[in-house]
Amino acid sequence: MLNRRVKRVLLALGMSLAIVSLTTGCSMLKKQPETESETEKQTEKQTAPESESETESETELQTEIAYTSQDKSIQIGGLKPYKITNLGVARTFQNIRLFKSMTVLENVKVAMHKNIRYGTLAAILRLPSYNKEEKWVEEKAEELLKEMGLYSLRNELATNLPYGKQRRLEIARALAIQPKILYLDEPAAGMNPQETKELTELIDHIREKYKLTVILIEHDMSLVMKICERIYVLNYGKMIANGTPEEIKQNEFVVKAYLGEEI
Fold first, then answer.
1. Alpha carbon of residue 26 to chain centroid
2. Who has the most CB within 10 Å: 32, 48, 89, 157?
3. 92-110 pLDDT, tens per residue?
4. Cα 106 from Cα 111, distance rounded (Å)
5. Taking the mean position of all CA atoms in its chain, how far away is CA 20?
């Protein structure tokens, strides 16, 4: 979490949507200009080249949350989770939050409720519309489990899965929502090097296959540098740098922060 004294690296992948906001957690943070003059100042600042002094001043994170798509900004701060989901935003958690007393298959199926169109009466009477929708849900969930290498474990309780596979199941559940933006909160946390390597390949694969924008919060620099296109570096809750992986590697403020020197 941002209030903990840790450094965060945020990555925007895919960029299938127009995302220009600083991001963290499962939300997009965006400062909204209050006046016309402030808007002009922001425009000038964006067009002007970044100076060393600007980087050193450490841009502070704002707390207003917005979802930006096709030049349209929608405030999602304070919205109920199902409304955020309906906008096409899905997330995983730093601490895995599966329904552990449910099976692997059920964990994925439960995330598909927003795509089901039959009503209560159809479910009670088992009408054809119910059977058709449930068949589609089952097939789609199994397809995602095959994608994640979990199909053979579909009838296993989620709590019985090893840690790395629980991570994969959580990603499968998020994909079941059919999102446009997928937020992954420290997906490599607690993983060994082999699991991290497999996760890196998986993220790259799902981004390409599902045409997603993927946003990570992550500490593992090997994962970060291999799959990111743009990186935002936070230190004590403040952004100290942003740029391409190559730019971040050479940024003196990032190097100092990660070596523990004063900035």
1. 6
2. 89
3. 988 889 999 999 999 999 9
4. 9
5. 15
